[in-house]
Write a structure and sequence with these properties.
The chain is built from three helices and six strands, in the order αβββββαβα. By secondary structure, it is of the alpha+beta class. The protein has one domain. The chain has a four-stranded mixed beta sheet, sandwiched between helices. A two-stranded antiparallel ribbon has the order 2-3. The longest helix is centred in the N-terminal third of the chain and has 15 residues. The protein is globular, with a radius of gyration of 14 Å.
Length: 117
């Protein structure tokens, strides 16, 4: 069962992807121990680790272990149910962009506060 507000997190990360021109798969599923399906609000590609960051809506040891085993970083982001540009940019800047420059859509980044959409 998906946590309360799961759809809001998915919507917020889809909005972030569009606004900031980043690659996000929202929602997403990984397989945990014994093949159990684990739902994540999003996988944010190109940030934090070579595979990206798995977004959890609450702390969940099994989900954290599955993300780690699959090569993703993870973050529990209970307060990110609605898109706030500055907050999402701060998280992305904290995680650091790890992609090669040519993988970005147009070779530029909108991850500067105050940058117009």
């Amino acid at each position: 069962m998906k946590p309360k507000g799961f759809t809001n997190f998915v919507r917020a990360w889809r909005t972030a992807a569009s606004d900031l021109e980043i690659t996000v798969t929202a929602p997403s599923t990984l397989r945990g121990a014994k093949g159990i399906k684990i739902d994540y609000a999003a996988l944010v590609h190109d940030f934090g680790s070579p595979k990206g960051i798995a977004i959890l809506v609450r702390e969940d040891r099994q989900a954290m272990e599955a993300a780690d085993a699959a090569g993703y970083g993870y973050s529990c982001m209970a307060s990110y149910q609605t898109y706030d540009r500055d907050s999402f940019m701060d998280a992305l800047i904290d995680w650091e962009w790890v992609a090669k420059l040519e993988t970005h859509q147009n070779g530029t980044s909108k991850l500067r506060k105050g940058t117009a959409s």
